[in-house]
Design goal:
The protein is mostly helical. Helices cover 77% and strands 0% of the residues. It is elongated and about 65 Å long.
């Protein structure tokens, strides 16, 4: 039970809270920059409530992180269609017949001919494969790949939002830096996405063949 709690905590903190806090800071910076507001003179009075403020920020960051993740998923749906994204597909290294045999052994399909191509596996069966593999403690590393995929996807979106805010604030060097960071996180997201799916399929085959 403690292992499950640790995984959920790591998953939530890295995948949602950190990107969410970064997103809130980005929005706050945009608000103060666009409105040309200054910090309140009596900001020091809040030092006595640091614990409450930090707790509230973490909670707000978690909620904002879930919103960020939903918006990032919308963009990810388009990006996954790009050749740039598909070029990293590591599932092409796995024999399709092996995948079909494992699915048949798991009684997911009636005949190996039911699997026509890897798109069938991705669209119809990847959720089942992931569920089967992650339930086995032997393959606990899968949670690391899933967490890395989530945080990189969300941070790519956050830095894209940062770029947009920087453009409106006429901070073009910051906008360029944000765009570069967004692209770098997008590359890491792409790598972790395919690496996670690759190991899900490989370990699923090991379980049933």
């Amino acid at each position: 039970m403690s292992n499950i709690i640790e995984k959920i905590t790591l998953y939530d903190i890295l995948g949602y809270t950190i990107p969410g806090i970064a997103f809130l800071i980005t929005l706050g910076w945009g608000y103060w920059s666009y409105g040309n507001f200054g910090l309140p003179e009596d900001i020091g009075v809040y030092s006595d409530h640091t614990g409450i403020i930090v707790t509230g920020l973490v909670f707000a960051g978690y909620l904002a992180g879930m919103l960020v993740s939903e918006m990032a998923d919308l963009l990810a749906g388009f990006i996954k269609q790009w050749n740039w994204f598909q070029d990293k597909d590591e599932l092409r290294d796995i024999e399709l017949g092996m995948i079909a045999k494992a699915l048949k052994e798991a009684k997911v399909i009636a005949d190996v001919c039911d699997i026509q191509d890897r798109a069938d596996v991705m669209k119809k069966h990847m959720g089942f494969l992931y569920g089967q593999v992650q339930s086995d403690a032997k393959y606990s590393r899968l949670h690391n790949y899933a967490s890395a995929e989530l945080i990189c996807k969300n941070m790519a979106f956050v830095f894209f939002a940062f770029t947009v805010v920087a453009v409106f604030a006429c901070q073009f060097y910051l906008a360029l830096a944000g765009l570069v960071c967004s692209f770098l996180f997008m590359r890491r997201w792409r790598s972790n996405y395919w690496r996670k799916n690759y190991y899900v399929v490989v370990w699923f085959i090991q379980m049933y063949l």
